[in-house]
Amino acid sequence: MIQDNPTLISAIRERFAHVDACPFQGERIFFENAGGALTLKQVAETSSFYAAIPDNPGRINPAGQGTQDVINKAKSDLAVFMNATSGQFFAGESGTELLFRLIRTACVAVEKGTKVIGSSIEHPATRSAARRWAEIAGLEYVNVQHNDAAGLVTAEDYAALMTPDVSVATILHASPVTGMGMDVAAISKAIRAVSPDCLIIVDGIQHAAHGQLDLEAYNVDGYAVSPYKVFSRHGYGLAWISDKLSAMPHDMLINAPATGWEFGTRDTGSYATMSDVISYFDWLGGEVAADETDRRARIEAAGRAIHAYETRLTQTAINGTGNLPGLRDMERVQIIAGEDNPAREGLVSIAVDGIASEKVVELLNQQGIRTHTRKADHYSGNVLDPLGLPDCIRISFCHYNTEAEVAEMLGVLKKLVEEAA
Q1: Average pLDDT, whole number, for the chain?
Q2: Rounded CA gap, 95 and 236, in Å?
Q3: Taking the CB of residue 53, how many other CB atoms lie within 10 A of it?
Q4: Residue 168 has pLDDT above 70, yes or no
C-alpha cells in the first residue's frame, strides 16, 4: 500500500509537475486537488509534442495516419481504464459541455410528458442541463433531495420517487463540495428496476481521480470526466456513451455517420495525454500489486490503493496526528457531512465559526497552504444553503500528498483559529 512505502510516495511525487512549489508563489502545499489535480510531467511533454504537429488526424499521409493511430489507441486505453465493453469515447470542450450535450440529446429524444429525475446534491453541470432541457422538451423534472447531514444521496432516495414514466436520469458520482461518493451502480439499479429503458447519465468529474471506474458495473448510458482533474491538462473533456445513446438523433453534420459525435478536427494531444494518465495508473498498480499481470487488474489495484491512502490522509486531517489535534477537536470548526463518513473521497470541507472562509483560505495561502473557498452561490448553494452556511473551506487531497503536509496544515490552522478567538 502507498501509506507504508515512503519510496513509492517519493516515486509518485516525482512524476508530477509542481508537486511542492508553484511557479507564481514558490514553495506551497497543494490541497486544492478538487479544483484541478496536479499534472503529470509526461502529460506536459506529450502536449508540447503534439501541439507542434500541423497535420490533421486521419489524412492520407504519415502524420495524419500516425496521429489517428494515437487517438485510436487512447480510446482503446480508455475502454480498459473505465471497463467499457461497448459504446464509444469522444472529446469535447469540457466535462460540463459534454454533460449538457448528453442530457440535451436524451431529453429531446424521449417521449414528451415523461420525467427527468436528478438529485439536489448534483453539480450544476447536470442539474442545470436537466432542468433546462426538461422544460424545453416538455418533460417533468423530479428532484431527489439529498441527505444534508451525510452530504450524499442514496439508491433508496431515488427509489422513493421513481415511476415507470421516468425516461432520463442524472447521477453525481462524487460531490466537489461534501467530498462524498455516491453508489452509482446501486442508484442505476434502483432506477432500472422501475424504468428499465431510462437513459442514465453520470457526472464522474469529481470521482475519476480517486479510484477505479467500472462502466460495465454501472449499467448507464453516459459518463463524463474532466481530464484536468485526472492528472491531465485543461482545455477538453471526455465522455463515454452507450450504443443506445450513440444511435439517438443528435447534433451532427448532414450526411455524417449516424453514430458520429465528434465535431471538427481532433486534438491528438488531448487523447494522447489520457494514454499517459492511464499508463500512470497501470504503473502504480504494478507497484502495489507486483504479481498482477493483467492491465485492467493493475488499474483496479491502483484505484484501491489510491482510495485507501486518501482515506488515511482525510482521517489524519480529521483525527489529528502526534500532538496536533484534528479538525474534529478544533474549537469553532465544523466538518461538513460529518466526521466519520465512510463515503468520503479525499476531501474535507469545513467552516470556522466567526471567520469568513475567504479569510481562512487567504491566511492559509500566506503560509503556503493552497485550499479553496466554496460559496453558497450557483455552484454550491444547493449544499451550503440547507446547512445555513454562506461559505466553506475545501481541503482536498490526492495520493501524491503526504501525512507530513497534512500535519503542517493542521498546525497552521490550529494557530489561526486560536489567534482569532
Answers
A1: 95
A2: 7
A3: 15
A4: yes
97, burial (CB in 10 Å: exposed 0-12, middle 13-18, buried 19+): middle
pLDDT interval class at 55 (50, 70, 90): very high
Residue 105: partners with Cβ closer than 8 Å, 6 or more residues away: 245, 248, 249, 250, 251
Beta bridge partners of 351: 334
pLDDT at 292 over 80: yes
- Work out whether strand 237-241 and strand 222-225 pair parallel, antiparallel, or are unpaired: antiparallel
pLDDT score recorded for residue 419: 81
The answer to whether residue 145 scores a pLDDT higher than 80 is yes
Question: How far is the C-alpha of 385 from the C-alpha of 146, rounded, in Å?
Answer: 13
Q: Residue 344 pairs with which residues in a beta bridge?
A: 180
- 104 Cβ partners below 8 Å, 6+ apart? 129, 133
CA dist 178 → 173, 301, 319 (Å): 12, 25, 18
The Cα angle at residue 351 between residues 349 and 356, in degrees rounded to 5: 125
pLDDT for the residue numbered 421: 63
Instruction: Tally the C-alpha atoms within 13 A of residue 59's C-alpha that lie toward its C-beta.
Output: 12
> What single string gives the DSSP state of each residue in 353-420?
TTS-HHHHHHHHHHTTEE-EEEETTTTTHHHHGGGT-SEEEEEE--TT--HHHHHHHHHHHHHHHHHT
Predicted local distance difference test score (pLDDT) of residue 344: 96
Angle at 226 between CA 392 and CA 131, to 5 degrees: 70
Joined together, the cell numbers standing for residue 230 give: 485526472
Smallest CA-to-CA distance from 166 within 101, 247, 111 is with 111
Measured in degrees and rounded to the nearest 5, phi and psi for residue 250 equal -155, 170
Residues 176, 170 contacting (CB under 8 angstroms): no
Domains of the chain in start order, with CATH, are: 2-39+295-419 (3.90.1150.10), 45-278 (3.40.640.10)
Q: What share of the chain is helix, strand, coil (3-state, %, to 5)?
A: 45, 20, 35
Euclidean distance between CA atoms 327 and 315, whole angstroms: 10
For 284, the grid coordinates are: 502504480
Helix and strand totals (H; E) in the chain: 14, 17
Answer whether 253's CB lies under 8 Å from 58's CB. Answer: no
Buried b (16+ CB within 10 A) or exposed e, 274-289: bbbbbebbbebbbbbb
Task: Enter the C-alpha cell of residue 392.
Answer: 466553506
Contact 134, 163 (CB under 8 A): no
